[in-house]
Amino acid sequence: MRQIFRYRDLVLTLVARELKVRYRRSTIGFLWTMLQPLLMMLVFYLVFSQLFRFDLPNYPIYALAGILFWNFFSQSIVASMNSLRGNAQLLQKLPVPKAVFPLATVISGVVNLVFALVPMLVLLLWRQHGLPWSLLFLPVSILLAALFTLGAGLLLSPLAVFFSDVVELIGVLLTVLLYLTPVFYPMAILPEKVRWIVRYNPVRSILEVFRDPIHYGKIPPLEHLAVCIAIAALALAAGAFAFRRNSDRIPFYV
Amino acid sequence: MSEAAAVFARARARPGAAGEEPRIELRGVSLCYRLAKQRVPSLKEYAIHFMKGALAYEKLWALREIDFVVRRGETVGIIGRNGAGKSTLLKVISQVLKPTVGQADIHGTVAPILELGTGFDPELTGFENIYLNALLLGRSRREVADQIEEIVEFSGLGDFVRSPIRNYSTGMLARLGFAIATAWLPDILILDEVLAVGDASFTHKCEERLRRFHDAGTTVLMVSHNAAAVRSNCARCIWLDAGRLRADGPADEVLRRYEGHGTDPDERRAGHLVTGS
């Protein structure tokens, strides 16, 4: 941890580089970050409130907030798994603390998420004729989501170094997880029999802390928040522990 | 003056003689690369083999029971054939690889001079790369900002610092790499076959800077295939052979044996005799 603090300037530079690569080449890159979730939301909107019909007020906002969270979560995990391999040359030559790479990946994911929030705010203004005060709570939600995601990234990224097929495997698992998380459907449509699976899915808790202030316009209840803090802390502790244990072996395998 | 006397005189003159504080202490260092017999191990294969109880690995000991101490102010050459373990040894000293067995104590900051282009991003400008590279070496933004003019000046890149380094020549990259790694006075400097590139005037500048470091007490490790380069820069030399320490002593003596070895069967049979240092 102290090592990473010493290399904090490096982390920021890596973040800046990652964003630059993403946004320099094209203005499309920048627009795409905002446009892609909107298009996905539109598809979900057409499918779920026009074809299947369920009643949820402000479904477009519900779905869009879910998609933004999910994109951040899944893309950050996959990118942190690739970050060690992508920097193999450096890891074999320099004694940099290896965690800076997944860390920088998650931080640039947060920046992308913040950019992608802009069209969300526009949509809110248009549909609700104003922004709820509860949006001020979003930084806390994003922080929790980031810590949770970083924990998962730290846990999985050494595995991706040791075994080449882990990235694909996790890709499949993420798809399964997407369906087990109420990203684009409301909890209410689930039959009672399977609802408990989704209820005990930690990703759902983190998602709701992010979405409630946007969609319902209210700050999540204290006990829910406490559960989420515990989940994020646990994920981060597990990730940091696993990463530390494996970190010496990484340069041998990248 | 006899050759032995010359060696003795030089050993006396070098400031890094016994009594100085140790900078690198290796005790019984062995390092093993575990190579999976099947290329690109996947989790699926791992699971299958694990269940069959047939997880086969090939063990490659790149270093075996290496012991030596290098003190403040010493300049040590490291020689050996390809695959003798020189690069692995440098990675242990720069703390990239942890020894499988044994203890490697490194005291102070290590400045590795990297192979061409490592730690650079071809799309970024020279200026941006100075930051990236120095931060990778563990410097802070402020430290880089304080030194950046000096780095640009030393590298002799001029206005080129403002263009992406994919346009640079090999010599320019080497100069920039050297300028960054040596911008701060390190406790230990690692040179891995780098002084070969660059024109005469730059080589001269490098040597001057190395001399200044040496006078300030920096410990220098130099890996080279070039016996002449080792002889002219190093008082002491370490010879690695198949991962073992074959010889460690005054450069002239070790180099004479290294050069003679291969032609002299007696010498080869003598095994890894360690001459005192």
Topology of this structure?
The complex is a heterodimer of chains A (254) and B (277).
Chain A: H1 2-6, H2 8-24, H3 27-52, H4 59-86, H5 88-91, H6 100-128, H7 138-162, H8 166-179, H9 192-199, H10 202-215, H11 222-247, H12 250-253
Chain B: H1 3-13, E1 22-36, H2 43-52, E2 57-71, E3 75-79, H3 86-93, E4 101-106, E5 110-112, H4 126-136, H5 141-155, H6 170-181, E6 188-192, H7 200-215, E7 219-223, H8 227-233, E8 236-241, E9 244-250, H9 251-260, H10 265-269
Parallel strand pairs in B: 3-7, 3-8, 5-6, 6-7
Antiparallel strand pairs in B: 1-2, 1-4, 8-9
Number of domains of chain B: 2
How does the major sheet of chain A shape up? Answer: none
Question: What's the Cα radius of gyration of chain A?
Answer: 19 Å
The counted number of beta strands of chain B is 9
Count of DSSP E strands of chain A? Answer: 0
Largest sheet entry of chain B = 6 strands, mixed
Taking all residues together, what is the mean pLDDT of chain B?
81
Provide the helix percentage of chain A: over 70%
Write down the overall mean pLDDT of chain A.
90
Could you tell me how far the N terminus lies from the C terminus of chain A, measured between alpha carbons in angstroms?
Answer: 22 Å
Overall SS class of chain B: alpha/beta
Give descriptors for this structure.
heterodimer, A: 254 residues, mainly alpha, B: 277 residues, alpha/beta, 2 domains, six-stranded mixed beta sheet, three-stranded antiparallel beta sheet, 9 strands, disordered N terminus, disordered C terminus
Question: What does this protein look like?
Answer:
The complex is a heterodimer of chains A (254) and B (277). With 254 residues, chain A is an all-alpha fold. Chain A has one domain (2-253). Helix content of chain A is 79%, strand content 0%. Chain A has helices spanning 2-6, 8-24, 27-52, 59-86, 88-91, 100-128, 138-162, 166-179, 192-199, 202-215, 222-247, 250-253. The longest helix of chain A has 29 residues, at 100-128. The radius of gyration of chain A is 19 Å and the shape is globular. Chain B is globular. In chain B, strands 5-6-7-3-8-9 form a six-stranded mixed sheet, with helices on both faces. In chain B, strands 2-1-4 form a three-stranded antiparallel sheet. The two termini of chain B are 21 Å apart. Chain B is an alpha/beta fold. Chain B folds into two domains: 3-113 and 186-269, 3-Layer(aba) Sandwich (Rossmann fold); 115-181, no CATH class. Chain B contains ten helices and nine strands. In chain B, strand 6 (188-192), helix 7 and strand 7 (219-223) form a beta-alpha-beta unit. At the A-B interface, helix 2 and helix 5 of A face helix 2 and helix 4 of B.
